[in-house]
Design goal:
By secondary structure, the protein is mostly beta strands. It has strands spanning 5-6, 11-12, 17-18, 23-24, 29-30, 35-36, 41-42, 47-48, 53-54, 59-60, 65-66, 70-72, 77-78, 83-84, 105-107, 112-113, 118-119, 124-125, 130-131, 136-137, 145-148, 153-157, 172-174, 180-184, 188-191. It is globular, with a radius of gyration of 18 Å.
Length: 206
């Protein structure tokens, strides 16, 4: 007996790997070569294509399609109706529809993507990046960065727990959990608190 929940209106193709405690709600379709981790939640009308990998404890809201080439690490949030792509130059007359045509999109641990945002394929959203609702991401987003607009640009920084970081004259900030962050040259943030499980360095914005 499956140790995950699937609503009766959803389709799970043979071969799909689904972790313990995951919940798949109404009208979803999970392809046969998809891999979904433990304790994930997939809302109404979610599509997961072949070779997509979803980590543990991810939340995929209604009307999200994860196309081949998308990889989500643990604790990723995908807001309602946000969009992934996997081909940079699509043409109907000259299809680009094989695995070799698809560009990888990597969303690292703890990143959040707001409602109706678009993630153009081939980018990486680094740890705890925050993409605002309606933003269009066309390049990599550094860890802890908040990006907004079309195309998306860095407009601030956010802690792992979701606090907007306010840096002092020494370029340091402390979030509501007591974790400390250091802003480096205005381009990257380092989590330096001894309370943090892992100190993660933000890669410089491209």
């Amino acid at each position: 007996m499956a140790d995950y929940f699937v609503h009766e209106s959803s389709y799970i193709d043979e071969g799909a790997e689904i972790g313990e405690g995951t919940k798949i709600w109404h009208f979803c379709h999970i392809s046969g070569k998809a891999k979904i981790g433990n304790k994930c939640s997939l809302g109404q009308n979610v599509f997961v294509a072949n070779n997509v990998v979803i980590g543990n404890n991810c939340k995929i809201q209604n009307n999200v399609s994860l196309y081949e080439g998308v990889i989500l690490e643990d604790y990723v949030f995908c807001g309602p109706s946000m969009v992934f792509t996997n081909v940079k130059t699509p043409r109907c007359e000259f299809p680009r529809n094989t695995s070799d045509d698809y560009h990888q999109t990597l969303v690292k641990r703890g990143a959040s993507i707001g409602a109706n945002a678009t993630i153009v394929c081939g980018v990486t959203l680094h740890e705890y990046a925050f993409v605002a609702a309606g933003a269009v991401v066309t390049k990599d987003v550094p860890a802890y960065a908040m990006v907004t607009g079309v195309p998306a640009k860095i407009t601030g920084w956010m802690s792992a727990c979701g606090d907007v970081l306010k840096f002092d004259e020494n370029d340091c900030a402390i979030d509501s959990t007591g974790r400390k962050y250091q802003l480096i040259s205005g381009q990257k943030v380092k989590q330096v608190s001894s309370e943090a499980k892992n100190s993660e360095l933000v890669t410089q914005a491209s």
